[in-house]
What does this fold into?
Amino acid sequence: MSAYTLLQLGEVVVFAAVLLYGVLGRHPSIAVLGGGFLIGKAVLNILAPEGGSVTRRSIIGYTLGGIFVLFGVAAVHLLT
It folds into this structure.
């Protein structure tokens, strides 16, 4: 297994732990943050067949994840 694959798996474990902490600790904003991280990682990998550098795909993926977090945290604060 390559170092890059191990790094990605490690990131997924950390991001899932953030999500799980938010859910189990009843901290919805933290759960949304964990979900945003996972969305960023997913988009980064979904764009891989399209080509482009890892940096470019990361910027796109984590920007979309960040937008999710902004709207998600706003929704948490407005609806709870």
The longest helix spans residues 54-79. Helices lie at 3-24, 28-46, 54-79. The chain has a mean pLDDT of 97. DSSP finds three helices and no strands in the chain.
